[in-house]
Design a protein that fits this description.
alpha/beta, Aspartate Aminotransferase, domain 1, Aspartate Aminotransferase, domain 2, 2 domains, 7-stranded mixed beta sheet, 4-stranded antiparallel beta sheet, 13 strands
Length: 430
């Protein structure tokens, strides 16, 4: 039976998460399916940032490092994010960017493996990752390999398990692939890597706040993630870093900044790393960005009384399955194919489509944006297609939004308006 728009309105009326949509400033007449790139502005954020600017900075000035708790923000916000990713208190901090944090943990993990290799032999000098992992992760790994004289080996997702051998030191993966939305089984791959003597670094950029993550249960080694996608922290929001307590104090991370010192205001000339995860801090905390990120994280924690991440995941699955179903039914014969896994357990909170027409994906997305349906585009290469990418954030995406988005997609394809020249002018950000 075909799902109707009225059916979708009925689903929204029954949705226990529906009231949480009121936490956000959503533009009228916009269906926002790009929260996997930039989350929506929480209503609380502007007032909170204004409070920090006008009162804590403007009136209280430097006293606010103590009186307003600025100095504790990396740990305080980190403990809130920890509740979303299965980490314990004081195991995760907010600092720097995802790329910088990745360099920190890859470097520390490399030292751990080198130490273990000296004890157990042989020397391991290979980092494995997925071929279409997010490019910045590959760039960071490549730069570290160049520094260490190691090799970076890129494999297809299905071949990763077979590639874990005695030469491999580290496995670096993004849990949910940014292009396809394919989701790795964190616990299974971590166990397989450990059995082969390999340490694992996880990037949670497309999973934290979107799918249930349990770092401790998976016995992961290291994890990083960003704050501006599903955590709704705003453009350029600081990232986070988690280290398994088993590893946290085994080595220094390479960016030994003053905030990671055991006593930052001792101002000693020699470095003594702080205990635990605090040593993964580096420079002065970005207070305004951290205040905004805390508001974003609070929007997710507001779901705890109605089921938390499990409830968010259930709605995410329902939204993405509805979108795939409606694309199959209402856009049949219009050149689209679903690139994301159709099996919900292997899919994050996004659905990616390809179009049979050469270079059609970008103008189709632009035509949709002109109609108020905001997704995004990711370019392919010789072996992968261009992608129309749509993220489904269960905190504010409604079932009726899904129906309306597919209807707009159908109209764009049937009318052929996407082929107009105005939709093919590439902007700097796609």
């Amino acid at each position: 039976m075909t799902t109707t728009r009225q059916d979708c309105l009925h689903l929204d009326a029954q949705d226990p998460l529906a009231p949480l949509r009121d936490q956000f400033e959503l533009p009228p007449d916009v269906i926002y399916l790009d929260g996997n790139s930039l989350g929506v502005l929480p209503r609380a954020t502007a007032a909170r940032v204004q409070q920090v600017v006008a009162d804590e900075w403007g009136r209280d000035l430097i006293k606010s490092w103590n009186a307003a708790g600025w100095i504790d923000l990396p740990q305080r916000v980190g403990n809130k994010i920890a509740r979303l990713v299965g980490a314990g208190d004081n195991e995760l901090v907010v600092a720097d960017s995802t790329s910088v944090n990745l360099f920190k943990v890859l470097s520390a993990a490399a030292k751990i493996v080198a130490d273990e290799s000296r004890e157990r032999g042989p020397q391991r000098r290979v980092i494995i990752s997925e071929r279409d992992n997010f490019p910045t992760d590959l760039y960071i790994a490549e730069s570290l390999c160049r520094e260490l004289g190691w090799d970076l080996e890129l494999l297809e997702a299905d071949d990763i398990g077979q590639g874990l051998n005695e030469e491999v030191a580290l496995l670096m993966l993004t849990q949910v692939n940014y292009r396809s939305g394919r989701m790795h089984d964190m616990a299974a791959l971590t166990a397989q890597a450990h059995a082969a003597g390999v340490r694992v670094v996880w990037d949670l950029a497309h999973s934290a706040g979107a799918v249930p993550v349990d770092l401790r249960a998976a016995q992961a080694d290291f994890a990083v993630g960003c704050g501006y996608k599903y955590l709704n922290g705003g453009p350029g929001a600081p990232a986070f870093v988690w280290v398994n307590p088993e590893h946290a104090e085994r080595f220094w991370q390479p960016l030994a900044g003053w905030m990671g010192h055991a006593a930052p205001f001792e101002f000693a000339p020699g470095y003594r790393p702080a205990a635990g995860i605090a040593r993964y801090l580096c420079g002065t905390p970005p207070v305004l960005s951290l205040a905004a990120l805390e508001c974003g994280v609070d929007t997710l924690l507001a779901a705890e009384p109605v089921g938390g991440m499990a409830a968010l995941r259930a709605k995410s699955v329902a939204l993405t399955e509805l979108y795939i179903e409606l694309v199959d039914e209402r856009c049949a014969g219009l050149g689209l194919s679903v690139v994301s896994p159709r099996e919900a357990a292997r899919r994050g909170s996004q659905v990616c489509l390809a179009h049979a027409g050469d270079s059609a994906a970008y103008p189709i997305v632009q035509a949709l944006i002109a109609r108020g349906v905001v997704g995004d585009f990711r370019a392919g290469d010789a072996s992968t297609p261009d992608i129309l990418r749509f993220g489904f954030t269960p905190l504010y995406t409604r079932f009726v939004d899904v129906w309306d988005a597919v209807e707009q997609l159908r109209q764009v394809l049937q009318s052929g308006e996407w082929s107009e020249a105005r939709f093919n002018q590439r902007a700097a950000v796609t």
